[in-house]
């Protein structure tokens, strides 16, 4: 008999769920117990008025309950008897979230069900569609474009089309496509432009190692061949070659022949931007995340920098305190409880740290142990240590201080790991244009066709996956190609390298957006499309977030961050 097998579960429940159901059985109400199948064995002899014994395979006793109510068996027998096997598994999957709690009554079950189906906080979405999305300075590790139109035009490029795309990239050829392309697969211009948009430049180039991202990459690199890890002479050769490439990139940036580039170390990332981009009229370098040790070393080298998020938070707190103080003064004046003329305000914590005259006034200056200078200094710097490795620690270097930063990074010993899988490996340089020692690389792209279930059937969903360090110019170039190829209707799921998200922060003392004429005069040969330059010249507006979802409908954009 089925009752002789302990823990038997016709509803295909896992053991913990079965045990919970057994614990609930003694607490059931009498009507629910009468609806359940009667027990057999000794329990049946104790209840002579119980109905006849039923088939245990048709038991609904441990079937999932909807909304916390007790299930009532239908008149025609068990509904699971004629159901396919896959339908028996669906209720099990639906009940998995309830394992996080142990409801004891119907009210708790209903509350838990409501909690499970609470809507997730929706990200910020523009109130109205726009013809352009804001610049996203974070690096994407993966972009998945989806559309109702196929991506066959991005498949199996011919050798001539691939070569033409590389040539267009090296010569910075400007490609302007029509608003709509009837046959994208037959458009050679579109396919060449697609190859052109996938190109980026990298240093160093070690094909057996994945050199981006570098933060948290130890697991991917461990076990790979690294002959330089124990060879100091080889490490010096690699760093010397890296220094030449780094200096070459900065010189291109200074001459406005390179719009921006990234320096990716195993601890932090640096974004160098040319004058005219991100609303700044000077060269800027953004470092994130930073530590107190790195900031102290930069100060010792004479590098002037600011902490925009810390200063913004400090200014916001000061404004709030001033508003609160004005409110308190107004309330006290209205209540007639203002301070008397001879009364002094309460001393602040900083006064306590710097002066202990109040101990002398109390006559206990010799009995109380005063904190030493080091303790006072550590207390003042506590907030700096707390923000280490966090987005709030982002540092901004501007103007001529970026040259000092360049020399600092070249000579910084902590720039390269001394132990672990990344020991002796120089930082990764990523650039949209060619530079000395750089290696041409391409993002990996593939098209995927799938079917999505709708109300009455299935519909075809076409997708294009792009994997690799997708930099800001690549994302904008791809969207400019998808606009005519997909007839103004597509969406994109973007996966961001989180340490670079803070690069979208609006930095302090930035100039207003420069005019297009000024940009075209100052950045004539930077290697990017003029529309891409126009987008990257705008002041960042995403804050500490990045674009996660991008959608185009009727040639207008909406996005979520």
Automatic annotation (TrEMBL):
Q: Name one GO cellular component term.
A: nucleus
UniProt-annotated stretches for the region Disordered = 1-81, 316-354
**PANTHER family with a match to the protein in the record:** DOWNSTREAM NEIGHBOR OF SON, PROTEIN DOWNSTREAM NEIGHBOR OF SON
Record keywords: Developmental protein, Nucleus
Tell me its family: Belongs to the DONSON family.
The cellular location(s) given in this protein's UniProt record come to: Nucleus
Acidic residues composition bias: residue spans: 341-354
Keyword match NAD = no
Q: Where is the composition biased (Low complexity)?
A: 42-65
Q: What is this protein called?
A: DONS protein
What are the BP-aspect GO terms? nuclear DNA replication
Give the gene symbol.
Donson
Native source species: Trogon melanurus (Black-tailed trogon)
